[in-house]
Amino acid sequence: MSSGVSRRSVLQAAGIGTALAATGVSLTACSSSGSAKDSVGNEGKELAPFPTYIPWTKGPAPDLEGTEEGVQAAYLKYPTPVEAIPEKPGDGSKVSIWVSSWGSSPLPRGKNKFWKAAENALGVELEVTVVPAMEYSKKLTTMMASGNMPDIMQLVPTPNEAQFVPAKCQDLSEFLAGDAIKKYPYLANIPRYAWKSSGRYAGKIFGIPVERPIAGSGLIVNKVKFKEAGILVPEVGGIGVDEFTKGLEQLTQKGKWALGAQKDGAFGFNAWMSSFGSPNMWSVKDGAFVNYIETDEFLAGLEQMVKWQQKGVYRSDALGVDGLQEKTEFLSRKVYSRVNSPIDFKSVTIENRGRFEMDYALPFKPSNGADPVHWFGGGIYGSGQTVLKKAPKARIEMLLRILDALAAPFGTKEWELFNYGLEDIHFTRGKDGGPVKTDLAISGGDGPDTLPLYYASAAPMPLYYPDQPDAAKAQHAWQTKIVPIGVHSAHWGLRTDAWSKAEEALFRHREDAIKDIVTGRKKLSDWPAVVKEHMRKGGKAAAEGLAKEYAAAQKA
To answer: Which of 53, 198, 210, 258 has its CA at 20 to 30 Å from residue 153's CA atom?
Structure first.
């Protein structure tokens, strides 16, 4: 690469010894805080097997088949729903739940029709605390410090989780590990990759994952514009980066930009580094953990992002743009692409209402001679899981039946209820029979989006877009191309004190450094100092701890 900055020079400039330069991890690793016996990690523990994966096959067949590796099954029209839960799972008692929400506050229980419908379907009285998503981690930390917890809780990564979970939460291994999960068929329908990303605490299963498409983020594009520029090609590596760049320049003119960007997301770097062959966040080399910022491939991608900024294909004020503005500008065709996930592709497709066609661009052929790859996501919502308060066996089984019901698959009446509410109140039927939200559900404070029980437990996400089968076909075709070249981050599901304490700070450090380099506030040659600071802030200790945990997990 033309910058002359390589991984070896980065590591040498960071002051890291030859053992680390060779493998990414010191050979004299110190343990994370606490002994292995007291740690929530896997090292030295007997590991409970992950639940057996038993796909649900009694419902409507998809129009386009999915794969166990992560391609979503697609439905081109809404199926006739079948009943999944013939008997109410609850025992009439009160069940308290904590979940986050990206919507407005729900109407009070006494005025909330969806709340009542959910209670009736589940056979319990629900005491639901809905916390705005941006405040959830902070309030969760406060709740943990109090020593109290609800019956069912959406857990997101916090500095205190390593101590809190074993102390206050129910070990679910005897209920869910291996074939034990067969008692809960819709939890058994959750793919194995989601359970692995959810992981274990001290070798035991404490949580239930909320599945998300594993395909991860990619470049969502205005199909017509990218075709006109000749840069929407049918195969991975079907266009070189220089030709791709020329197309971006062609699209960028008179107040319009080829690439959308915002203050969060660091210029969409997670869609670009993989095209240069960069490993996902953490990779394993000779048993040692290497963070992607240490690699030549990551640097090659960063150098290309600098070139794009210099050519003006990113807007100059990108760091002053928030996510809502960026989405609005994409929908209004002021920018012609955005980096985001399959979930975003669906929501923006629905909001776009067919005004223009959208698609995903496939990875281009890079300038560094590497084979392009694609970064998988973790396959779970928010890097978290759902945990239960310690209770007698009979109550835990009842709570698991509740979560099993909430995970009723697409194509069932229960899925429809917990995702859309009541017909003619929270939704009407579209042209293909699929649910279309009413104003009450969208902005009236009554419906699943303001009382999101689906953040406590949910079925694997379907690939279905109401009345837009072509969009579902496009998404399925993209996943079919990128899943075979997808790479995981080796850290998913692993727990070490060193990583949990450093993760948030390292995330901010990495994002800020990328922004500084791309905008020119710092030079690409300053990257060794970025890596050195990453190591100092906890990256070195995290790599050491994760390597131990990874080795232990391979024994399961």
So the answer is: 53
174: enclosing H helix or E strand: helix 173-176
pLDDT digits (tens, 9 = 90+) for 152-196: 999 988 877 878 999 999 999 999 999 999 999 999 999 999 999
Interatomic CA distance for residues 390 and 32, integer angstroms: 27
Describe the chain by its helix, strand, coil percentages, rounded to 5: 45, 15, 45
Distance from C-alpha of 309 to C-alpha of 127, rounded to nearest angstrom: 50
Strands (E), 15-69: none
What is the end-to-end Cα distance of the chain in Å, rounded?
41
Complete domains list, the chain, with CATH: 7-28+217-375+486-553 (3.40.190.10), 94-212+380-462 (3.40.190.10)
Q: Give which of 369, 362, 241 is closest to 296, Cα–Cα.
A: 369
E strand or H helix at 285: strand 282-285
Alpha-carbon span 407 to 228, nearest angstrom: 43
The encoded tokens of residue 555 equal 């024994």
Reported pTM: 0.87
Instruction: Look at the block and give the residue holding tokens 């922004």.
Output: 515
Contacts 24+ apart (CB under 8 A), 325-333: 325/262, 326/260, 326/261, 326/262, 329/260, 330/220, 330/222, 330/260, 331/355, 333/222, 333/225, 333/256
Q: For the segment 499-527, what is each residue's pLDDT rounded down to a tens digit?
A: 888 988 999 999 999 999 999 999 999 99
Segment holding 374, helix H or strand E: strand 374-375
